[in-house]
Design goal:
Blueprint (H helix, E strand, L loop, with lengths): L13 E5 L3 E6 L9 E6 L7 H11 L1 H6 L2 E7 L3 H9 L14 E3 L4 H5 L3 E7 L5 E9 L1 E6 L5 E7 L7 H17 L18 H9 L1
Parallel strand pairs: 3-4, 4-5
Antiparallel strand pairs: 1-2, 1-5, 3-8, 6-7, 8-9
Amino acid sequence: MSILVGKKAPVFTAKAVLNGNKIVEDFSLEQYIGKKHVVFFFYPADFTFVCPTEIIAFQNKIEEFEKRDVAVIGCSVDSEFSHWKWLQTDQRDGGIKGVKYPLVADASNSIAENFGVLAGAYDYNENGEIVFHGQPAAYRGLFLIDREGIVKHQVVNDMPLGRSVDETLRMVDALKFHEENGEVCPADWHDGEKAISETQESIASYLAN
């Protein structure tokens, strides 16, 4: 698995579904450079069980991300047609109808591989043929990317383990607070709480309270 924190997020251009119903051919994270922070997350597959709970949870909190000027984007190794169909399916029938943020199609597995979250790898067998070892799907990777395209936070869960949208918002708040104030955010910090200047005096004062 790659550690991308502190590095430029991998560049890609791919098909995606926007606004729950529009397929585009050339979606890219580069459109947000200089404009927005990005939460880019991977999930294993459409029409599964844990995945819709996460995808809908992000949609339920989408206004919180938007007021922080953060774009939320999902991605799996399914096709754009699978995404589109799932987005047209009612939630009571196992679908994710009502989700409006972009879902990227990574049918080639290349985006997941470049982000280091592909649950398997290509190799050659004894006959010189390319084979895939493992599961051709993405782990639950999430990447917080700043306006310069630099990854500032990443977390990767195994497939059975759903993520916390509230923790993602907390990390967004911490990053934006640090960018705006220069102070660092201690353990379990939340917006509005005391932060720390990078001095021994500030750390000692924080620990004493």
